[in-house]
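Figure 6 in text form: structure in, sequence out.
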């Protein structure tokens, strides 16, 4: 998949080719691996809430001088699917440029084959996370 950063494309391919019974385990691994917020963002200062998510979810994207993007996500542990979306984006977009992230397809989660494993409501939340992240980057450029 050439329309997304290489790390993210690798994750998408792994999910798309995984048996359905393994997909939920993979999601939990990403949920568990989501990096914690830095202390200066602990109160969600400067972060955007994603109201489309059923649970409280906050994000922030920062463009570094070299045009790579640093992303921050916060979601409670009681929402493992939503945390998994954040973990996938955190790992898959690490070191990516603004242009690479803006080019990520909006149907990312469908390409991963997640529609067969989780509810449409959860997919919509994940899609909203990506959309808001892209919007932050588009307005920062």
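Output sequence:
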């Amino acid at each position: 998949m050439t329309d997304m950063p290489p790390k993210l494309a690798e994750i998408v391919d792994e999910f798309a080719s995984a048996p359905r019974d393994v997909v939920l385990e993979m999601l939990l691994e990403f949920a568990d691996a989501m990096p914690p917020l830095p202390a200066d963002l602990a109160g969600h200062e400067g972060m955007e809430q994603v109201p489309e998510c059923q649970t409280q979810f906050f994000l922030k994207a920062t463009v570094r001088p070299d045009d790579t993007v640093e992303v921050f996500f916060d979601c409670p542990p009681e929402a493992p699917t939503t945390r998994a979306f954040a973990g996938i984006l955190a790992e898959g977009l690490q070191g990516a440029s603004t242009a690479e992230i803006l080019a990520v397809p909006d149907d990312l989660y469908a390409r991963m084959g997640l529609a067969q494993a989780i509810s449409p409501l959860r997919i919509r939340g994940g899609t909203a996370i990506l959309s808001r992240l892209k919007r932050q980057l588009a307005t920062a450029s």
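Caption detail: The chain has one domain: 6-140.
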